From TrEMBL, chain B:
One Pfam short name: PqiA
Keyword terms, alphabetized: Cell inner membrane, Cell membrane, Membrane, Transmembrane, Transmembrane helix
Lineage: Bacteria, Pseudomonadati, Pseudomonadota, Gammaproteobacteria, Pseudomonadales
Protein name: Paraquat-inducible protein A
Organism: Pseudomonas sp. W17
Primary location class: membrane
Localisation per UniProt entry: Cell inner membrane
GO cellular component: plasma membrane
C-alpha cells in the first residue's frame, strides 16, 4: 500500500509523515515546516524543461574549446574530446579513461537516461520499476563527477602561469559544459522518484 | 526488515507507528531498531533510517575537526610546479582567482561554490544544528538550518575536486617537475572527515532530536 492511498504525505525534507488535509491547498510539514505535496508539483514538466536546456547546451559544450594552452606565444585551443585524445597520445590510458568517462560518457548517459526515465514514467513503458530505480540512483550518484573537467581547468589555470613561457586560459566551452552539468543535476533533483512506482502496482514489484 | 502491510486498518494506525519510504512511497509498520541497526525499504532497498549511538557527541567532534582542517586545505599549496627555474603554487583558492582573472567569472563562481563555499556552509549548518540540540536553544532555527543543509548536500564536491587534482598532476607530470604540498594532505583529511561525518550523523535521529519528539534520540 502506498502512503498516498492512505491519505498520508511524506515530507520531502525531513521524511516526517503528515495526514493529508483535504480542505487546504498548501500544507506544511508539522515537524520542519517545509511544504508537503503528495508528489512534487509539475515534476515531469520541470524535469523535461531542464533536460532540454541541457541538451541544447550540450552541443557548444562539446564543439567549443574549453581551454587554450599557450606556450612561447603559440596558442593551442582544445575541446573536451581533443583533451582525451591528447592524453591517449601521451600514453596515459588510465587517466584518459577517467576523463573520457567523466566528461563524455556520463553527461551523454545522463541526458539519455533521464529522458528514458521520463518517457517510461509517462508511457508506463519500456522499463520495469526495478530497472528504473537502479537507473535513477545511478544518475543521481554519478552526476557530480562530470564536474571533474571544470576542476582540472581551474587547477591548470592557476598552476601553469609563467607569462609568455607557458600559460593556460579557460574558454567559452567550459561555461557551456558547467551549465550542462548543473542543469542535469537539477533535473535529477526535480524528478520525483515516487512516480516510478506509481503506475507499477503489479505483483513482481512487491517482493 | 519492516513488513509492508496491506491491511485496510493500516491508514487508521497512529502516524508514530508508521513509516513510509521516501523514494517509493511504500507504507509500512515502523520497526523498532536496536543500536547500530538500520531499516531498509523491502520494495526498493532505500535506507529508511539507522539507529546509532552518541550521534551528537561524535558528530560534534568530527565537525570541529573538519572546520579546523578547512582553512589549511583551501589556502595551503596543493602542489608546486617548477618550469625552467620558475616556480608557481596552486591552492584551491588560487584556482578560483585564476579563472576569475581570465574573464571566466561564471565558471569561477561555480568552482568556488562546489569546492569551497558549499562545503563550508554545510559544515557550519551541521555545527549549529548540533549545538542547538546539545544546548537546547533555538530549535526552530536548527530545523531551518538542517533543511538548508539537506538542500546543499549534493552540491559540495570535494571528492570530485580531489580527482581533478590527480588528473592535473598526471597531465603536468611530463611537462614540468611537481612537488606535492601540505595543502593536499589537509584536503584529503578534510574529505575523509566529512565522509565519516555523513555516515555518523544519522538524519532520522537528528530530526527527532531537533523537534523534541525524543529527547534521547541523539544520545
Amino acid at each position: 500500500m502506498r502512503a498516498i492511498e492512505a491519505g498520508i504525505l511524506i515530507c520531502t525534507e525531513c521524511h516526517e509523515l503528515n495526514r493529508q488535509e483535504t480542505d487546504s491547498e498548501e500544507q506544511t510539514c508539522t515537524r520542519c515546516g517545509a511544504m508537503v505535496h503528495p508528489r512534487r508539483p509539475n515534476s515531469i514538466l520541470r524535469t523535461w524543461a531542464l533536460l532540454l536546456t541541457a541538451a541544447i547546451l550540450y552541443i557548444p559544450a562539446n564543439v567549443l574549446p574549453i581551454m587554450t594552452v599557450s606556450s612561447l606565444g603559440q596558442g593551442d585551443p582544445s575541446t573536451i574530446m581533443s583533451g582525451v585524445i591528447q592524453l591517449v597520445q601521451h600514453g596515459m590510458f588510465p587517466i584518459a579513461a577517467v576523463v573520457f568517462v567523466a566528461s563524455i560518457l556520463v553527461p551523454t548517459f545522463k541526458l539519455v537516461g533521464i529522458a528514458l526515465l521520463l518517457f517510461s514514467v509517462q508511457r508506463h513503458q519500456p522499463l520495469s520499476a526495478r530497472q528504473r530505480i537502479i537507473m535513477y540512483r545511478f544518475i543521481e550518484f554519478i552526476g557530480r563527477w562530470s564536474m571533474l573537467d571544470i576542476f582540472v581547468i581551474a587547477i591548470l589555470v592557476a598552476v601553469v602561469n609563467f607569462g609568455r613561457l607557458a600559460s593556460i586560459e579557460a574558454n567559452l566551452g567550459a561555461v557551456a559544459f558547467a551549465s550542462v552539468v548543473i542543469l542535469t543535476m537539477l533535473a535529477a533533483v526535480t524528478f520525483d522518484p515516487r512516480l516510478i512506482w506509481d503506475n507499477t502496482e503489479s505483483d513482481d514489484d512487491h517482493e | 526488515m519492516p513488513d509492508p502491510v496491506d491491511a485496510p486498518g493500516l491508514s487508521e494506525l497512529p502516524l508514530d507507528d508508521l513509516v513510509a519510504c521516501h523514494e517509493c512511497d511504500l507504507l509500512m509498520r515502523k520497526p523498532k531498531l536496536a543500536l547500530g541497526e538500520k531499516a531498509q525499504c523491502p520494495r526498493c532497498g532505500y535506507e529508511l533510517y539507522a539507529h546509532r549511538h552518541n550521534v551528537v557527541e561524535r558528530s560534534l567532534a568530527l565537525v570541529i575537526a573538519a572546520l579546523l582542517l578547512y582553512v589549511p586545505a583551501n589556502f595551503l599549496p596543493i602542489m608546486q610546479l617548477n618550469l625552467l627555474g620558475q616556480s608557481s603554487e596552486d591552492t584551491v583558492w588560487s584556482g578560483v582567482q585564476g579563472l576569475f582573472d581570465t574573464g571566466m567569472e561564471g565558471v569561477a563562481v561555480v568552482v568556488f561554490l562546489c569546492s569551497m563555499g558549499i562545503p563550508l556552509l554545510k559544515l557550519i549548518c551541521q555545527l549549529l544544528v548540533l549545538l542547538s540540540i546539545r544546548w537546547d536553544i533555538g530549535r526552530s532555527y536548527g530545523l531551518l538550518l538542517y533543511r538548508i543543509y539537506h538542500h546543499l548536500r549534493d552540491w559540495g564536491m570535494l571528492e570530485v575536486y580531489l580527482m581533478g587534482v590527480l588528473v592535473a598532476i598526471v597531465k603536468l607530470a611530463d611537462m614540468a617537475s611537481i612537488t606535492v604540498g601540505l595543502g593536499l594532505v589537509c584536503f584529503i583529511s578534510l574529505l575523509l572527515v566529512q565522509v565519516w561525518l555523513e555516515v555518523v550523523m544519522s538524519p532520522h535521529q537528528i530530526w527527532q532530536a531537533l523537534s523534541g519528539e525524543d529527547i534521547h534520540a541523539g544520545d
